[in-house]
Amino acid sequence: WPPMHNPIEDDAGRFCQAPGMPSLALGGADYPIEIIVTEDQVTIPMELHQQVRRIHLDRPAHPARPFPQRNGHSIGHWEGDTLVVDTVAIKAITFGSVPHSDQVRVVERIRAIDDGAALVNEVTIVDPVIYMQPVTVQQYYRAAPPGTRMLEYECTEGMWIEHQERRGIAAGLAISPDALE
């Protein structure tokens, strides 16, 4: 693990890398999300890095050997009005705001509050390699005003503009044929 981890400087999002879980459950609340609930699955498209989470409601257990991914493998069930989500098979990421090993497990308890105008997600991170005990935090989501829509998330555009500026290319200027050689 990096001996001098800095959660700000080492944030993968600064380099247009999608954070994956558990960071995904803790960050990005200022970007719109949509929650689509069906009988078999909860699908959460997110504006931030255009990520999509799939929480399987039709499975009592994770596969014996789930394929490790940034967002892991999520199964969920309802306990009254609370969606309980268990996520495993999360790729180890030693950088970013929530460093974790490949042994991390994330349990979320998501429920509506304020007469449905908001959600609270109680996130518990268990990782025996990184943390001495489980870490539990809460993330809040407020319903967006009517008419709000998700936009395309273009992380690299600013980097491209800075690159062009460093090369002395201003927007709208023609490139000389000599520059292409």
Tell me about this structure.
The protein is mainly beta. The longest helix is centred in the last third of the chain and has 10 residues. It is built from two helices and eight strands; from the N terminus they run H-E-E-E-E-E-E-E-E-H. Strands 1-2-3-4-5-6-7-8 form an eight-stranded mixed beta sheet, with no helix packed on it. It is 8% helix and 29% strand.
Mind sketching the topology for me?
Blueprint: H1 23-26, E1 36-37, E2 41-45, E3 52-56, E4 73-79, E5 82-88, E6 105-113, E7 118-126, E8 135-142, H2 157-166
Keywords, separated by commas or semicolons:
181 residues, mainly beta, eight-stranded mixed β-sheet, 2 helices, 8 strands, 29% strand, globular
Derived from helix and strand composition plus strand pairing, the structural class reads: mainly beta
| Rg (CA only) | 20 Å
**Residue windows where pLDDT falls under 50 for at least 5 positions:** 171-177
Largest sheet: 8 strands, mixed
Helix percent reads under 10%
